[in-house]
Amino acid sequence: MTETLVIALGGNAITRPGESGAIASQFAHTAETLEHLKPLFRSGARIAITHGSGPQIGNILIRVEEGERRVPRLPLDTCDADCQGGMGYMIQRLICELFRREGIKREAATLITQVLVDRDDPDFQHPTKPIGSFYDANELAQIRSSRPDWILREVSAGAYRRVVPSPRPLRILEVEAISALLDAGVIVIACGGGGIPVAWEDGRLAGVEAVVDKDLASSLLATEVRAHKLIIVTSVDRVALDYGRPSQQWLDTISMDQAREYLAAGQFPPGSMGPKIEAAIDFLEHRGEECIITSVEGVAEAVTGNGGTHIVAPWRRTSLDFAKVGGDAR
Predict the structure, then answer these.
(1) Does residue 214 carry a catalytic annotation?
(2) What's the pLDDT score for residue 1?
(3) Catalytic residue among 10, 11, 52, 195
(4) Cα–Cα distance, 101 to 188 (Å, whole number)
């Protein structure tokens, strides 16, 4: 049976920390990332690619804020759609170039993706996701006066940002179209930046001023297209216990239950590895087989079992060694 993979590209695959995010740099980094995916493209697997968009959507929001003296302000869901389209175009164009150069007889397509959320999600009462510009204490009163609907929080000493809800994704509205494209052998770019959050209100579909976590959206997509593997691409080769401490231990293969225990013990902080582990557990709980967390450079090898951290469902327990912590999973 043809394997189905959902590959969730982290921001580091497109924009490096400390960079300005210039388009030429984004294209260069994305092209490099796609080179590492060549073996998977050649394999014939059904592949959906998702991606983060934190720096890109931040830049769009700054442009909106700076330009609204001349043009109408764009709501956040429209900014999400613009970002999905622009980044999807970049990935799609580079895949087309790669396939032509390498003689790979496949196509790629970007699907602007809406993600259903619940207006009663607790995060609407306690927004947590910082977006847009940074403001200092001197700007705070003016921003609060001109933007009474915004919630501003101090994110570091003397620096304030707008925060918006980050509700859990419930359903991918375009999942049937995505599945049809996958069945046709098309590489599908979907759920960019976590997708566009929408909610049903009085029989109408309304855009929501929120940001959906990209890893949770990728996990939901993997569940809904019945993927065999969810591959979360990040900046490290493997997940670690006691990360950054003298007692640090790299994880090769662990069970879903072990992942749950480590998460509950506080091993994976909310702002870094935590959402990725949550996404992995959620995928496996919904009958996924395996989640792999690794770096861009290690993706193709990790899919064959050589490298990366593998979080595996109970029904795969007979084929993999769960007790292995540290060392080399080869």
Answers:
(1) yes
(2) 58
(3) 11
(4) 19
Selecting among 10, 214, 229, 307, the annotated active-site residue is 214
Q: C-alpha angle 208/211/214, rounded to 5°?
A: 135
Query: What pLDDT, in 10s, does the model give residues 202-242?
Result: 999 999 999 999 999 999 999 999 999 999 999 899 999 99
Radius of gyration of the chain (CA): 20
What contacts 135, CB < 8 A, 6 or more positions away?
143, 152, 159, 160, 161
Give all domains of the chain, ordered by start, each with its CATH number: 1-117+171-227 (3.40.1160.10), 233-330 (no CATH)
With a cut of 80, say whether residue 53 has pLDDT above it: yes
276 is catalytic: yes
Residue 106 and residue 186 in contact, taking contact as beta carbons nearer than 8 Å: yes
Catalytic residue among 12, 59, 274, 324: 12
Is 324 designated active site?
no
